[in-house]
Amino acid sequence: MNDFSRTARYLYGSLVALLLLFMYLPMLTIALASLSRSKYFRFPIPAWSTNWYSEVFQSLSIRDFFWTSLIIAVLVALVSTVLAFFGALAFARYRWKGRKLYQKLLLLPILFPQAVLGLALLLWFTALGIETSWRSAVFAHVVWIAPITTLVIAIPVYGFDPSVEEAAYDLGATRWQVMREVTLPLLAPGILSGFVSAFLLSWANFPLSMFSTGADQTIPEWISAKVQSGYTPQVPAVGTLMMAGAGLILAAGYTAAAFQSHRRRRLVAEGH
Amino acid sequence: MTDASRLISGETVAATTNETSQLARRLKEALTNPGLVAAIPIGLLFVFGFLGPLALVLAFSVMPASSFSLAQAPTFENYAAIFSNSYYISFGISLFLAAATVAILLLVCYPLAVALVRVFGKKGALLTLLITAPLFVADNLRLTGWMLFFVKGGVLSGTLAYFGVEMDSILYTMGATLFGLVYIYLPFMLFPMVLGVSMVPPQVREAAFDLGATRFQILKEIDIPLAMPGILMGALMCFILTAGAITEAKVMGGTAVVTIAQDIQKEFTFAQNWPRGSALSVVMILLAGGLSLALLKRIDLDTIFGRK
């Protein structure tokens, strides 16, 4: 920590600042473009307007796409979190024979190009006679998102002290009681971050939705279709709203997790 | 004779009961093994949502061209067609883009990971969250943002024009596609690298420093080897994902860049030639699967994810 001189710290600091600018520049551009009055984007923006937002709010089809995206994301987050909770226990908590192999297999869907996975799933649904719709999209998303959620939950599981569970067993608690009173509350922050990241990853997904939603359409699919067939500032307006929504959810999740760990530390300090 | 046969049959019975009881015991052992039981739900998802579809792709890849059923004699004509057509161009483009993206990201992300872990300490966690947060915004939306940034009359050329510099749009080129890939996959490299760099114990670096090692020696002998699992994870993930990229080429590359994933999509959708699309996918599956399994064999995942 001390082997960095003042200059080195400034240098690294400006490097990270540049990176943050780089990561958020396209999103700032989107927000800017949503406020331009003319249909075609020009910079500097000659005239400003919030018209495109009122058009977005009045559009019934965009409302439909919003609900489709939302239903898919909520279901994906619920299913992924349940699968991932047990998956993470198998990944990090229990020592069992096939664990190393299981850990590697679990990573394979993440280490696979999503578009190719989406096409393989489309073929799979068609061969099984399943008509693609938002329901099949939920399945497709879960295939890719549940392993990621498992990793998100597994990281805090590593820090989990198994002796707490054993103590509860010794005090006569049943398996179900231990799960409900000890394991779940201790892992709650990790489960929450798993749920939030699963929701947002599904909400933002395009490559899997593209091949698995059938006649239904999500917001990212609509954006892609609009960008290719005819740009309108409705695209950045919808995009800005999506980014704002994701930002709010992330901030709320982060605050909740911080609050929870703060409260736990206080309880421990007070000796409860 | 009867005694003998009774003895034999008795023995067999005993042996069978022994075998079944052993089987039952094993089953009971497996079902009371909490790790295995906890892995079952996601294991089923893996079989029916990943292995199954990929096996189906493999089966379709040996069916006659343009057929929609599996009930035909297997043939290798699709593979022959792939190699005699010009698919090697899009394969080459995809592999080149993937290699270039990984090389750029390795150089860019290492100093960033060092900054986040060693310079910022506690604040580094929040900064890492801020950098990975864009993952939760659709790729194609963020790329559209870059498109509006680079397009003629957009943010970049508008700003330059203000200073009296005229500039053509750099969109719809290989360079623009590479830029888009580097942007989209940066968090995928940075995050494992941060995990890797935080695996290097500071005491070891201090010890080497006290023994007179130069900064370069510390980097070469300690920093990089000890962070290697994280670095390898990041490089593997970025290489595979960029090799199968599609959106970046569409938004930033326009028609100038056609990647292998676009060719696969075309076969499955417009051309309605599932077997050929499948054969192309199998090449992709072998590439992704082969690389992943080869590298994962050398990485202990517990040390990457399990560090407190």
Brief description of this entry?
The complex is a heterodimer of chains A (272) and B (308). Chain A is mainly alpha-helical and 272 residues long.
Tell me about this structure.
- The complex is a heterodimer of chains A (272) and B (308).
- Chain A has eleven helices and no strands.
- Chain A has 272 residues and is an all-alpha fold.
- In chain A, helix 6 (134-158) packs across helix 8.
- The radius of gyration of chain A is 23 Å and the shape is globular.
- Chain B is mostly helical and 308 residues long.
- Chain B is built from 14 helices and no strands.
- In chain B, helix 8 (174-197) packs across helix 10 and helix 8 packs across helix 11 (247-253).
- Chain B is flat.
- Chains A and B meet through helix 1, helix 3, helix 4, helix 5 and helix 6 of A and helix 2, helix 4, helix 5, helix 6 and helix 7 of B.
Rg of chain B, alpha carbons = 27 Å
Please give the largest β-sheet of chain A. Answer: none
Would you identify the regions of chain A where 5 or more consecutive residues have pLDDT less than 50? Answer: none
How many separate helices of chain B?
A: 14
- What percentage of amino acids of chain A are in beta strands? under 5%
What class, by secondary structure content of chain A?
mainly alpha
State the major sheet of chain B: none
Q: Which percent range describes the beta-strand content of chain B?
A: under 5%
Please provide the ordered H/E string of secondary-structure elements of chain B.
HHHHHHHHHHHHHH
Q: How far is the N terminus from the C terminus of chain B? A: 71 Å
Global morphology of chain A: globular
How many distinct beta strands of chain B? 0
How many individual β-strands of chain A?
0
What value does the Rg of chain A take, in angstroms? 23 Å
